[in-house]
Amino acid sequence: MTSPLLPTYARAELSFEKGEGPWLFGRDGERYLDFGAGIAVNALGHAHPHLVQALTEQASKVWHTSNLFQIPEGERLAKRLVENTFADVVFFSNSGAEANEAAIKMARKYHAVNGHPERFRIVTFEGAFHGRTLATIAAGGQAKYLEGFGPKVEGFDQVPVEDIEALKAVIGPETAALMIEPIQGEGGIRTVSNAFLRELRQLCDSQGLLLIFDEIQTGVGRTGKLFAYEWTGVTPDIMAVAKGIGGGFPMGACLATAEAAKGMTVGTHGTTFGGNPLAMAVGNAVLDIILEPGFLKEVERKGLLLKQRLAELKDRHPGVIADVRGHGLMMGLRSVVPNTEFIAAARAQKLLVIGAGDNVARLLPPLIISDAEIGEAVNRIEAACAVIEAGQQNAAQRGAVQ
Fold it and tell me: Which residues bind N(2)-acetyl-L-ornithine (predicted)?
């Protein structure tokens, strides 16, 4: 049957009817262990009781009023984010791309109100992914996302990650900001070194630039801290957040210092749906759990456990797993075989993982995953490796016969 949906996704022949914690129940009658979490979105798993309660209670009151009126739950959520981060102000949006758009506009506006409207260019880094709008695909700079959409939006320069000399060479009188993911998610779970991030901060301070962190995938507990910048010794001026902050409900946020945000006055930016009462109720419910004493420490501990178990798998299956990378519960396996083959083999074992660049499969389990479920996932990966190895052996034998 031909689908009426625009065919922009190569969807797996699989759909789900319900979820519970880290488990998804397929319409095929099978139960799947979800180590994709909706691409790092379902931070607290599926149907978390506290989130369900918050959403249903708010749904029986008011869904949408618009930002023409005060939204108390939004004020509360912004206050909690400010209290637990570097930021002084928050702008709520519906997605990560919108959060990044707000960050880009904020950086440009900052220089404009300082009397330097010529400073509008933003330097980004190869392998980045910042969204799918015309501006954010230009920021990401990847040819496969830019192709066919006309001239690239002006104002973005790209350099290799960790190449400080290339960065210094591209910074000029029109440069406004540097924009980076502390760990490149779509780019293949590639961690940017703390030393390089510190160099970025020093460059920004010395040249009057703003530092933007894209923590859409790394944020809200994914690495074992509320935000990944806390590991680095570096504080950004502006930070884009989404995915886990809504626990599955569409939501994003742009956080900033008062200085960085000083140009964003009444009428300079807006959103119809961003910060709506439903999203704010769920966002507060997510923080209720994430900010519980000891929760993030447990994420950190479980991340170390997962990394150790994956390293053991790599040692046992070097013909399948080439590299283990990541931090906390944001892990990546770079495979020897095509990552699509690895992902399909894992799915056959009823384990869901997500593809990424650099031939990587991402493991992004919900933060409430248990030690036993981590062990179960590792067992399923091992079974997938065994199937791949058997196929490799059969292919080698056929080649020898021929």
Answer: 132, 271
